[in-house]
Amino acid sequence: MENIIENKTFDFAIRIVRLYKYLSKDKDTIVLAKQLLRCGTSIGANVSEAQKAQSRADFHSKMTIVLKEANETHYWLRLLHSTDFLSSKEFESIEPDVKDIIAILTSICRKTAIN
User: Model-level pTM?
Assistant: First the structure.
């Protein structure tokens, strides 16, 4: 069975790695690029880890962490765009992906929350 969030976050991580390679060519962006690389790739890694959660509560906890990483990634993308390190075209190319991932993760977290 296809796991949509796992596939989307893996594909997104590939885009983040490529964006990091592009951004890290400029020494002025290296610190910001590393922050983006760290959180942007951890989204998929943590989704993959959550697939082997020991319980529903463990799964929910891991997916909550993933949602935080996705939100942080969106922050760094917005910052890079607002400081002119990412053009509007580049930003508008990747932002819908992270927003889509955030929406899916938000839904997953709501559905798996234990009341």
Answer: 0.94
